[in-house]
C-alpha cells in the first residue's frame, strides 16, 4: 500500500491555540486524524510529520523523494507555514528530491499581509490549496491521489 506524507512546518504544532479566529480551534492532532481518514478513503497510508526546524523538513523531503522513486509513496502534502515565504532551501529540496508536493495553506494567504503573497514553493509544487481551513488537507490528499494515483 502506498503512502502520502503530510508535512507541517513551524508553529503548526500550535494549532488550536494560535490565532483561533484565523486558524480555527482544531489541533494538529485533529488535522492528522482528518488526514489519516482521507487517506483511508483512498486506500493509502498517511504519515504525518511536523517540525519547527527547516533542516528537518529538508531531510523529510529528501526521504520522501527516495520513497516516491522506490514506488512506496505518492507524494507530499506540505504546509510549510512561514517558510513558504522565505525558504529557497525548501524550494531546492523539493526540486532536488523530485518529490510531488501539494502546497497547502489553512488561511487565504492572499487576503493577508503582503509578505505572505509570495511563495517560494509554488513554482515546484504540483498544486496549491489555499484558504479552505483544515479541510484543505483532505482536498490535497484527494488531489494527489487523483493526479498521481495510488496504484
Automatic annotation (TrEMBL):
Task: List the catalysed reactions.
Answer: 3-dehydroquinate = 3-dehydroshikimate + H2O
Give a GO biological-process term.
quinate catabolic process
**UniProtKB keywords:** Amino-acid biosynthesis, Aromatic amino acid biosynthesis, Lyase, Membrane, Transmembrane, Transmembrane helix
- Please state the Enzyme Commission number of this protein: 4.2.1.10
Provide the GO MF annotations for this entry.
Answer: 3-dehydroquinate dehydratase activity
Task: Enumerate the transmembrane spans.
Answer: 120-141
> What InterPro entries does the record point to?
DHquinase_II (IPR001874), DHquinase_II_CS (IPR018509), DHquinase_II_sf (IPR036441)
Organism superkingdom: Bacteria
Q: What is this protein called?
A: 3-dehydroquinate dehydratase
Which source organism? Answer: Grimontia celer
Tell me the classification of the organism that encodes this protein: Bacteria, Pseudomonadati, Pseudomonadota, Gammaproteobacteria, Vibrionales
